[in-house]
Known about the structure:
It is a single chain. The protein has two domains: 215 residues, P-loop containing nucleotide triphosphate hydrolases (Rossmann fold, 3-Layer(aba) Sandwich), CATH 3.40.50; 60 residues, Alpha-Beta Plaits (2-Layer Sandwich). The strands form three sheets. A six-stranded mixed sheet has the order 5-6-7-3-8-9, with helices on both faces. It has a four-stranded antiparallel sheet with strand order 11-12-10-13, covered by helices on one side. It has eleven helices and 13 strands. By secondary structure, the chain is an alpha/beta fold. The radius of gyration is 23 Å and the shape is elongated. Helix 3 packs across helix 4 and helix 4 crosses helix 5. A hairpin with a 2-residue loop joins strand 8 and strand 9. The site of adenosine-5'-triphosphate has 13 residues, from strand 2 and helix 1.
Amino acid sequence: MIEAQSLTKRYGAKTAVNNIDFTVRPGQVTGFLGPNGAGKSTTMRMILGLDRPSGGFVRVNGKAYARHHAPLRQVGALLDAKAVHPGRSARNHLLAVAATHRIGAKRVDEVIGLTGLESVARKRVGGFSLGMGQRLGLAVALLGDPATLILDEPVNGLDPDGVVWLRRFARSLAAEGRTVFLSSHLMSEMAQTADHVIILGRGRIVADAPVSEILAGADGDSVRVRTPQVEHLTRLLEAEGATVSRAEPDLVSVKNLAASRIAEVAAGAGVVVYELTPATRSLEEAYLALTRDDVEYRTTQTSPEVNR
Ligand SMILES: Nc1ncnc2c1ncn2[C@@H]1O[C@H](COP(=O)(O)OP(=O)(O)OP(=O)(O)O)[C@@H](O)[C@H]1O
């Protein structure tokens, strides 16, 4: 269980995490989502006692991380998979970390098996691919058989098989009753892995809900309408009870009105329409809509591939 209250982190004038409250519960996978720079890593670092909050607090399994006598046995974390001595073998690296907590070689070999590292366990970590490095990071996280796992962007660098493996693995850890908290900037990834998501935008929580709820909310149908007479058509459609939001200078998204009715209204008023496309909003779009105002560095591309 992870509990944050009024958790805040400021770096000079910049507020990276702004007074957030949340609880991550055992027995399920909780996804931590947000665009780059939203504050996910900073929050995870505070959970793990690597950064001091400027305000508020966060507890893991009932206590601040630093107050646990054997933190590896409470919390397993995967933050930066590259932070490993390159000359050591994977097994020796695990043995070295295990020794700090009086964890024996038997458990080291167990986690090697759990993470599928048997064939490379005696190879130098320096030659590992990113995916193998991620598996090794996970093996370290699991050494103490912790009740809580915190994984920062764990699918980064994994090949498609690795992604499927990690997804199943995260779910099996949660099924054992553990708290599994993993970050990602991809909603589509979380939709397949997490039971619950907490979405961060510019240091604030913009959603904290079961994935099923976000999916249900994402299914509102809309119609994309491209026209050079945006203002005029918007007024006409709103008079019909539609909700119209502007996506681009000449493009609107229309809800609560059928495409056929939009066409009739436009034709009746002599409004030129270049495009009229009924669209079902994908989960990815729902996520983008939630975080639209919170992206620090925006590209000019606005419509990602539909991805569910
Ligand atoms: N040590 C630091 N000093 C100053 N600013 C920082 C520091 N660490 C993070 N920030 C700023 O805090 C904000 C949140 O960063 P953070 O890395 O937590 O975001 P994130 O959601 O994890 O993003 P990413 O996916 O890019 O890692 C960003 O604006 C970042 O530039």
